[in-house]
From TrEMBL:
Keywords: Acyltransferase, Transferase
E.C. number(s) listed in UniProt: 2.3.1.9
Secretion signal span: none
Transmembrane segments: none
A GO molecular-function annotation: acetyl-CoA C-acetyltransferase activity
Every Thiolase C-terminal domain range: 261-382
Thiolase N-terminal domain: residues covered: 5-252
Keyword Transport recorded: no
Annotated protein name in UniProt: Acetyl-CoA C-acetyltransferase
Family membership noted in the UniProt record: Belongs to the thiolase-like superfamily. Thiolase family.
PANTHER family, A to Z: ACETYL-COA C-ACYLTRANSFERASE (PTHR43365:SF1), BLR7806 PROTEIN (PTHR43365)
Amino acid sequence: MAEAYIVDVLRTPTGRRKGGLSHVHAIDLGAHVLKALVERNGIPDDEYDDVIFGCVDTVGSQAGDIARTSWLAAGLALNVPGTTVDRQCGSSQQALHFAAQAVMSGTQDVIAVGGVQTMTQIPISTAMLAGQPLGFPDPFSGSKGWQARFGNQPVDQFYAAQRIASHWGLSRADMEAFALESHRRAIAAIQSGRFADEIVPCEGLSVDETPRETSLEKMATLEPVNPEYPDITAAVSSQTCDASAAMLVVSEAALKRYNLTPRARIHHLSVRGDDPIWHLRAPIEATRVALKKAGMRMADIDRVEINEAFASVVMAWQKELDYDPAQTNVNGGAIALGHPLGATGARLMTTLLHELEHSGKRYGLQTMCEGGGQANVTIIERLG
């Protein structure tokens, strides 16, 4: 089978809700990273085969196939199509999978991949699935098939986060300590310039504005998001934010044709489903299945980026996979850096590849929980 290569990865800073990127139209936010990607890599824009973007809540400014509209808003070639993917929080990770699969099949050679989300402009109803816009009805209401199978069990990410915490014996104090470390790592990465090479400044914003100087004492004062879920507070949950990210995925033929230097090879990609009521547990089994298919062990993986949708998600995964926290989200995660839904998968891959390069390590694994009880897993091999 043909190989798929990552040539470039980049992202905007993560803009805090109502912060530095909140006024930017979603199309323009996506256009910003696409324009930078094309300019940085020298491939004529009319020779791209496709644009595949992740985006959740494709309504309002995010409607109309934002992969295509962002490409056009960037002033790029009219002949290049685009398609927008919604696999909930894993949307732009799935966009990478679709691009890699197209290259591996031999049907495409040059693909712009990424994601965009402006959560200030289109807030989510966080009690439901990721990407349930405020003001919209419960998506399960009136579905006879869903009710017949799952009844009235809550499809609620906060419920799932609490259920995971209780099942794996994770106390609120444990999760607050995890969250504090996420902020500490992110702030350290910013102060040391660790993110400088992966960020394309946007609207005058050049660093992530989501990490916070906080303390365990401050976290302890927060009320739970719901009295029924006493251990889940805003402190141990991912932040809503505004951001976009993009990647260049190419074939071996394209590497030669355009004299490109690959930065990573797609070593493995897969996706797995789980119980939608557990909702956030899927990365555990998905990682096990991915490792088996790839013929690898966790000991072979040098760095992991797993989305910090909630502290309990990552902590349970670490317990089950027996993986070193010191090699997981080493520059902080979504609790500090934000979770811009449709862009998060591409943001994680951008950070993962740069971290492998900074540390001189070889294999990186990315996974995340996704609405409906799903999880993507991508394993890359750093080259060079």
